[in-house]
User: Which sequence fits this backbone?
């Protein structure tokens, strides 16, 4: 019984690091996030499947009057999003070792870049809306919906980052380390989906 | 004239309730095969069901003695029984069912191969009637399909609005009518007769009143019918009928209906050029009598609530006149 | 086998009682996170919706009592028909299974003190309640949906179904999906992490295997429905064109997305019932389940294979022959795990010494009805036969046999079985048996003739029928059967209500059950178990040595975990003890969050985007407040 963790006792950075080392299983919160990711993954799979289903119901894709999607900027932006998983990963490692401020800085760095990513994506989204509309063709409908749903997931991630920065500013407990871990997991998922979505988005130009 | 005599006979037969809609009274090879398949499946299902009930009865009778009858308690045997009856035997039966129905029979009830049919009819589903066209002719009618008996007829099924489903069970399985798609089904009647069909995909308020009749006739009679259907509308003979036509063309009627040979070219409701030659009205909701026709046009929402035909603000004599005009359009 | 409580242990129990005490009164219920209270709230709410769905059914059957009936016009009928399906599936059978039975019993069966996420659990209930109210606001405001429970397009698009009816349907189902997803996630994490140390996966009761399978199926099936509904609402509210062929969309996209969800949904409906059956059978036949590992595996396989068969709902659509044949083959394959389970249950009954008390009667009834429903389902895997009989009353018969017979009968049996545990009183046995027979007769009288009238060509979903096709007699029998069935169900309800006031004291374990919930008092204390039980098999109550060890532990303090709201967490497969978790006590945030989310749905329905946005922000704020309270020991 002595080797059983009472994780709620870990209210300091050192205690947290000890608890994390001792725990043999994934924490409940980790499982919860993993399952939430499973549902969102399935949602995106349904959307992407719908994209290709509609594609194969149409002879011309995109339909006449709509340009093929550009390659460079979407790919570059997605690359940047994927890169932000590195500071998130680093933040988790720092938290695991009990280094609160290092973790905080790395999350802040990731958040700034993620925010810039989202800002640019929204700008591109609005720019696309000027060329073609989601309420004119099925292509437009699925294009903007798929991208929009992904951008919403990024925005939610930014809200999670904000909360995390606030929480970590007050200390590193087991609970907050867990939060850091699951939010990082969320970002790995969002980055992965970003890749799937961008490939779908640029598919007609490939 | 002979043709009208045939129409009256049919009308009389209709009023006596002729035209069944049962898959278990097949009148074509496809429906026959499906019905036979059903009876075999019922037989096997009955064996399985009564076998299981018998086992449960044994459980009740032997409720004070543990273990199997004669064998007693034996984990290996009970597990073996579960494997045999829960897996092995079902696999054998299901593989057989699959082979017969999904590898062999399915070919006989699928859409007809191109070139294997003598005739094509287009049926377009609407809320809540069937538009029937005979490509290669000028014939257009509604809710009543005539085909030559013992002839392979291809039906191309489409829709003008929502999903409907074309189903004449005595002649073949159903096929959905999907926007943008052209599905095909074979109609082949072993014998002359009248076969009832109905829309088999929920399509809104009057889905319940979207039926049709298929008349399989001897070839000569069919060709006579088809030729008549190609003709333009008869000119009215009496003053009341002329008055009726005038009212029809001047009011909203002509905006929705076509009567070939007049200025009525609407395409929202059924073609009425030969409406009086049909055995029923409003997609087999009413018999085709003068009284029913007048009731239908005077108060459509009462007969078929939700129908798109509006109630017109006309006098009783007006409705009688329109009725007698339409009644004349054989 | 009573658990005698030594004096040394009294102090420990007092402490547990104090730590786990609930807030009194209404506030206590609004802020509760106790899985048992939440389970009861789910139970009563879903039973209320069962009554609503039942009224809708009786309206339908009264209208169809005679040809050209005038009880309901076509619009009223279409509303009743649609809401009957939606209510029964989404507001009754799934919530009662996972929300009532799952929530109440899974933690107890695994020896835990609560679910893994108690506040999420409460949230799941409040969202379910809100979503049900949301949909019925639509009904009572004259805006019920009318396109059937599967809501095919183009009928469900604005052109053919103007007005908010379909929006209530679509948004309402996305809303209930939030509740079901939350419960599913909770069940999975609870089963993987909170099993009592020593309860390795192979010692977990079959009930938990069934619920684990259901939960995974929900996680992977619901998003397909959400996708379909979101695309539909975008078409309806924003003028998009997903399903609109004129602009490059596709009608069949809806059917594919819907049935990719819809078919696993029917296994989601039936698997909890399998779990209930596999709990009741061993208890009443006094024998372990035959072929336990095969049954456990079969439960999981059904959920898994269920994802590969969806287009058997679309055999008449005109898909390619190859596609149809593949789906028919997959649909036949899924028969096998069901067959294995059926045969295992029957063999267990035959080789045991059954006492045919009320709970077992419902299960025997279930077995008979499931066989009939399963057989008619198998006939549908014969593609040409399906193409004749789909969309007729034959399929209505099939799915009522499998949903009512095979999902609801075990639920009713389960209500009787666990009634003594939940209330501490026994139900009236003779009355219980009578309620079974009346319901069984009513069920068969209502639904068996539907096979026949379908074979005579009667299509489904029609508000009336003509008198000259030979259908009238069968419809009369079906309607009489429906009233008889309603009477049987009222007998069940009356029995349970009266018994909860006048029943005899039941004691801890009136039936000699095998699973852990029978180890604790009836009703259970808030902390479920004074001692986290020792487990060496899936039938812990039949392992006397382990139960004796629990008594000893209570005296010594081992496994009592009385320093807070504590429950053990263990490894996922072997259940080695890893951690002591501190669980939340009561919290207002679940109900507040449910209200915030209701605001989003309400204002989206009303097309008030700014107001909806305000509620989105409110949701985020509430979520932050929720996660501001950490489980640190005071």
Assistant:
């Amino acid at each position: 019984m002595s080797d059983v963790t009472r994780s709620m006792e870990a209210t300091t950075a050192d205690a947290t690091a000890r608890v994390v080392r001792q725990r043999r299983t994934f924490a409940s919160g980790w499982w919860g996030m993993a399952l939430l990711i499973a549902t969102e993954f399935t949602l995106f799979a349904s959307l992407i499947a719908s994209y290709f289903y509609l594609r194969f119901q149409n002879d011309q894709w995109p339909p006449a009057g709509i340009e093929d999607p550009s390659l460079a900027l979407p790919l570059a932006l997605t690359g940047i999003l994927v890169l932000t998983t590195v500071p998130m990963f680093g933040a988790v490692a720092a938290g695991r070792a009990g280094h609160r401020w290092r973790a905080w800085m790395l999350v802040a760095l990731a958040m700034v870049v993620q925010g810039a990513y989202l800002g640019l994506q929204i700008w591109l989204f609005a720019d696309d809306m000027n060329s073609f509309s989601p309420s004119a063709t099925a292509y437009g409908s699925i294009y903007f919906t798929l991208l929009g749903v992904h951008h919403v997931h990024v925005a939610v991630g930014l809200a999670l980052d904000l909360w995390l920065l606030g929480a970590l500013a007050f200390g590193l407990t087991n609970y907050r380390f867990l939060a850091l871990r699951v939010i990082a997991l969320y970002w790995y998922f969002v980055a992965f989906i970003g890749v799937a979505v961008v490939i779908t988005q640029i598919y007609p130009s490939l | 004239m002979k043709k009208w005599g045939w129409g009256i006979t049919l009308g009389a037969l209709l009023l006596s309730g002729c035209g069944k809609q049962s898959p278990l009274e097949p009148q074509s090879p496809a429906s026959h095969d499906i019905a036979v398949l059903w009876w075999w499946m019922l037989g096997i299902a009955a064996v399985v069901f009564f076998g299981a009930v018998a086992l449960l009865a044994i459980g009740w009778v032997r409720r004070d003695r543990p273990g199997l009858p004669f064998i007693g308690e034996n984990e290996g045997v009970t597990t073996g029984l579960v494997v045999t009856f829960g897996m092995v035997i079902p696999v054998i039966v299901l593989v057989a069912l699959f082979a017969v129905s999904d590898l062999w029979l399915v070919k006989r009830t699928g859409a007809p191969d191109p070139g294997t049919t003598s005739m094509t009819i287009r049926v377009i589903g609407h809320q809540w009637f069937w538009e029937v066209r005979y490509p290669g002719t000028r014939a257009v009618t509604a809710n009543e399909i005539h085909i030559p008996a013992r002839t392979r007829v291809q039906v191309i099924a489409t829709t003008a609005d929502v999903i409907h489903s074309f189903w004449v069970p005595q002649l073949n399985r159903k096929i959905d009518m999907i926007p943008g798609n052209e599905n095909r089904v074979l109609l082949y009647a072993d014998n002359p007769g009248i076969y009832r069909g109905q829309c088999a995909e929920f399509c809104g308020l009057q889905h319940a009143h979207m039926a049709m009749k298929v008349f399989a006739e001897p070839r000569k009679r069919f060709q006579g019918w088809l030729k008549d259907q190609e003709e333009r509308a008869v000119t009215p003979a009496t003053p009341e009928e002329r008055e009726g036509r005038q009212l029809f063309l001047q009011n909203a009627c002509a905006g929705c209906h076509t009567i070939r040979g007049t200025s009525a070219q609407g395409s929202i409701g059924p073609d009425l050029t030969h409406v009086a030659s049909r055995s029923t009205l409003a997609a087999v909701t009413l018999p085709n009598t003068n009284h029913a026709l007048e009731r239908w046009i005077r108060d459509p929402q009462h007969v078929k609530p939700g129908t798109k035909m509006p109630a017109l603000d006309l006098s009783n004599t007006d409705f009688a006149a329109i009725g007698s005009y339409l009644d004349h359009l054989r | 086998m009573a658990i005698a409580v030594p004096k040394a242990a009294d102090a420990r129990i007092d402490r547990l009682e104090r730590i786990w005490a609930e807030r009194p009164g209404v506030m206590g219920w609004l802020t509760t996170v106790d899985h048992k209270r939440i389970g009861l709230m789910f139970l009563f709410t879903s039973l209320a919706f069962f009554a609503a769905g039942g009224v809708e059914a009786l309206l339908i059957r009264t209208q169809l009592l005679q040809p050209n009936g005038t009880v309901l016009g076509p619009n009223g009928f279409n509303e009743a028909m649609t809401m009957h399906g939606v209510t029964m599936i989404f507001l009754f059978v799934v919530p009662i299974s996972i929300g009532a039975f799952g929530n109440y019993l899974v933690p107890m069966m695994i020896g835990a003190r609560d679910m893994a996420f108690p506040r999420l659990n409460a949230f799941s209930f409040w969202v379910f309640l809100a979503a049900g109210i949301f949909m019925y606001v639509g009904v009572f405001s004259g805006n019920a949906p009318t396109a059937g429970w599967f809501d095919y397009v183009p009928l469900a698009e604005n052109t053919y179904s103007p007005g908010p009816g379909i929006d209530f349907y679509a948004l309402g189902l996305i809303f209930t999906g939030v509740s079901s997803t939350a419960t599913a996630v909770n069940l999975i994490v609870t089963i993987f992490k909170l099993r009592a140390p020593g309860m390795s996966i192979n010692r977990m009761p079959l009930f938990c295997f069934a619920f684990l399978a259901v939960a995974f199926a929900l996680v992977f099936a619901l998003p397909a429905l959400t996708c379909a509904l979101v695309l539909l609402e975008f078409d309806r509210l924003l003028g998009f064109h997903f399903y609109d062929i004129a602009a490059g969309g596709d009608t069949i996209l809806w059917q594919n997305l819907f049935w990719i969800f819809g078919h696993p949904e029917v296994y989601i409906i039936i698997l909890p019932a399998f779990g209930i059956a596999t709990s009741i059978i061993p208890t009443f036949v006094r024998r372990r389940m035959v072929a336990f590992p095969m049954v456990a595996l079969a439960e999981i396989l059904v959920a898994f294979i269920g994802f590969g068969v969806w287009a058997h709902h679309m055999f008449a659509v005109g898909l390619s022959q190859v596609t149809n044949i593949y789906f028919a083959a997959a649909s036949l394959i899924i028969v096998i795990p069901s067959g294995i389970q059926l045969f295992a249950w029957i063999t267990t009954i035959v080789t045991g010494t059954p006492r045919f008390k009320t709970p077992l009667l419902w299960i025997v009834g279930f077995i008979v009805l499931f066989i009939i429903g399963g057989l008619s389902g198998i006939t549908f895997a014969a593609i040409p036969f399906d193409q004749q009989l789909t969309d007729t009353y034959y399929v209505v018969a099939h799915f009522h046999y499998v949903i009512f017979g095979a999902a609801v009968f075990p639920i009713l049996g389960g209500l009787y079985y666990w009634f003594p545990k939940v209330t501490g009183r026994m139900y009236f046995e003779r009355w219980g048996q009578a309620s079974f027979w009346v319901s069984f007769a009513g069920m068969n009288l209502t639904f068996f003739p539907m096979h026949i009238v379908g074979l005579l060509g009667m299509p489904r979903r029609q508000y009336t029928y003509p008198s000259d096709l030979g259908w009238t007699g069968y419809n009369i029998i079906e309607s009489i059967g429906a009233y008889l069935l309603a009477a049987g169900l009222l007998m069940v309800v009356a029995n349970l209500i009266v018994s909860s006031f006048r029943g005899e004291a039941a004691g801890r374990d009136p039936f000699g059950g095998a699973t852990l919930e029978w180890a604790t008092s009836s009703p259970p204390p808030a902390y479920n178990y004074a001692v986290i039980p020792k487990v060496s098999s899936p039938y812990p109550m039949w392992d006397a040595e382990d139960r004796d060890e629990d008594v000893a532990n209570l005296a010594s303090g081992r496994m009592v975990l009385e320093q807070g709201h504590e429950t053990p967490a263990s490894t996922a497969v072997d259940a080695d003890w890893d951690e002591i978790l501190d669980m939340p006590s009561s919290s207002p945030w679940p109900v507040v969050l449910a209200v915030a989310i209701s605001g989003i749905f309400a204002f989206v329905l009303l097309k008030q985007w700014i107001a909806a946005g305000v509620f989105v922000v409110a949701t985020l704020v509430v979520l932050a407040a929720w996660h501001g309270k950490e489980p640190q020991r005071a």
